[in-house]
Amino acid sequence: MAPPKVMGPDTINENVKRTSYAVRGELYLRASELQKEGKKIIFTNVGNPHALGQKPLTFPRQVMALCQAPFLMDDPNVSLLFAPDAIARAKHYLAMTSGGVGAYSDSRGLPGVRQEIAEFIQERDGYPSNAEHIFLTDGASKGVMQVLNALIRNEKDGVLVPIPQYPLYSATITLLGGTLVPYYLKEEQNWSLDTADLNAQIQTARRKGITVRGLVFINPGNPTGQCLTEENLRQLIELCHRERIVLLADEVYQTNVYQDERPFISAKKVLMGLGGSISRELELVSFHTVSKGFLGECGQRGGYLEMTNIHPLVVEELYKVASIALSPNVTGQIMLGLMVKPPKPGDYSYPRYTAESKAILESLRKRAHIMTDGFNACKNVDCNFTEGAMYSFPQVKLPPGAIAAAKSAGKAPDVYYCLKLLEATGISTVPGSGFGQKEGTFHIRTTILPSEQEMPAMMASFKRFNDEFMAQYSKHVSKL
Ligand code: DCS
Predict the structure, then answer these.
(1) Which pathway does it serve (predicted)?
(2) Cβ–Cβ contacts within 10 Å for residue 18, how many?
(3) 257 Cβ partners below 8 Å, 6+ apart?
(4) Which of 183, 184, 176 has its CA nearest to residue 156?
(5) What is the pLDDT of residue 236?
(6) Per the count of CB atoms within 10 A, which of 19, 23, 238, 254 is most buried?
């Protein structure tokens, strides 16, 4: 008999086993199986715009193509295929590298791109930004992991995470052996911040011997889609300063805003606007990415983090740890440069870039409405408007009959509902339990990314399924 594996299911790191990540969990696996069997699946489980048909923008991809294949610049036909400003920009980025995109960069990223990001932040916020405090990462995910890795020392260290949350946070905190301290968003007020609950959760955690060291917020929210007010941000900043907590600002959806009352405002800007000692003391790390916005370049894996008021020796330690992985991927870094420094008025590619990006954002705004309205037209479904980001997170009021049926199938009620939805319609969603939800409530998360043309039919098919499901299991459950 073969000896047991050294790395067997019972002998790997317990934290690895404990970690779960619903976005690619049971529902996704079942959807992939059904797809293999030939069923048409609409993958709304992950915010991956290009996978649902979004086309890449022309200018950034022209630059990327030339960076990957610089010999094309010697071809006599180059100017027939590539815009002159794309050729110039490719040369600009290649000159920043030490041997093109095939060479490692500094572990913090290319200094030239870090400088372009600092200029972007300065322009966006109206306050200085220091390129030395900006690290480039393989998507925002890796940046979040690097910071949590430095923050969490043991299971007594707690990180406040909004519930519902994006499971990068719960998964990473588990993986690192820390403690997630939940704070609940108010669904009945469009998923707004509840500072009373936040304070109460800090006290509860402290009574249990937890040292609360970090607070994450996601603005605009995933999966909840809410846009925080400036007042909310000020409250978070003041609370973290008072309670000696590092603020982690997940701002990856800053360009995805579909209401006009509350345009995006960064935590850094609010902090700097407060002035005085707080603006020199609050420890803030902000995250951004090329995966979202109108670029949606998830596969390029480009992200950055900006540190404000982080101890210089800690910045050095983070640099050391980043060095273990040698270099963030260089094409992702160039995509970041392109995101923060788009063509300007007067540039050859400006009109096309503007038309392409505007079309995507306008369509996302329409889709946010079609989807929210579609959910609210369904029996026992209540959905807050997707003010920003890329998701809808409707509450589904499951009748007792459905809850009982789920139980006898050995499934959580929301998982049961999502599986039935998938089998009936091919719509692949994620159950609310993957993001966290108040005890006794059930939700599903979908992206708003299926194409505008496809969406009405998708929502009609959702409604058919849902209303039949509800009729099958119930008489009547009142609306929220
Ligand atoms: N932060 C939030 C709030 C996110 O939603 C995501 C990705 C990330 C960070 C990380 O993105 P990158 O690593 O690609 O920069 N969102 C996932 C989601 O919920 N669906 O798709 C991906």
Answers:
(1) Photosynthesis; C4 acid pathway; Amino-acid degradation; L-alanine degradation via transaminase pathway; pyruvate from L-alanine: step 1/1
(2) 11
(3) 220, 227, 263, 264, 387, 388
(4) 176
(5) 97
(6) 254
Q: Which two tokens mark 150?
A: 């430095």
Task: Quote the ligand 1 centre to 167 CA distance (angstroms).
Answer: 9
Extract the tokens encoding 174.
Answer: 């588990």
Tell me: the pLDDT tens digits for 406-424? Answer: 999 999 999 999 999 999 9
* Contact partners, residue 45, CB within 8 Å, separation at least 6: 23, 24, 27, 28, 31, 428, 429, 430, 445, 446, 447
Which domains are seen in the chain, by residue range? 14-53+362-479 (3.90.1150.10), 96-340 (3.40.640.10)
- What distance in angstroms lies between residue 65's CA and the mean position of ligand 1's atoms? 25
- Predicted confidence at residue 475, as pLDDT, reads 64
**CB neighbourhood size of 132 (10 A):** 15
Name the CA dihedral angle for 105, 107, 161, 193, rounded to a multiple of 10 degrees: -60
Residue 290 CB–ligand 1 contact under 6 Å = no
Q: Which residues of the chain have pLDDT under 70?
A: 23, 475-480
Amino acid letter, residue 458: M
Q: What is the pLDDT of residues 316-342, one digit of tens each?
A: 999 999 999 999 999 999 999 999 999
DSSP 346: T
